[in-house]
Amino acid sequence: xxxxxxxxxxxxxxxxxxxxxxxxxxxxxxxxxxxxxxxxxxxxxxxxxxxxxxxxxxxxxxxxxxxxxxxxxxxxxxxxxxxxxxxxxxxxxxxxxxxxxxxxxxx
Length: 107
Known about the structure:
Elements: E1 9-10, H1 25-29, E2 33-37, H2 43-55, E3 59-63, H3 67-73, E4 77-80, E5 85-90, H4 97-104
Helix pairs in contact: 2-4
């Protein structure tokens, strides 16, 4: 499911993965942008979250340990748009989080 944002991929009922907490992914994502992190607890994640919160007040950070979800999305980090399309996915959160967010937000 890896994407650079040029070909949107939707998260639908068939591709949504169960979170390790048992919570429903759609309810957890909410109404805004969400970053699914299957490699949580690092400084780059905190930097990305701060940049996203500054640009979009409806941002949710979802840290999860589900290996099934990580394998299904083929990435440690997945940025999901409000319409449940994947805006970006990768195994690292590069220092260019502002550029990733600007592209996802249409800037």
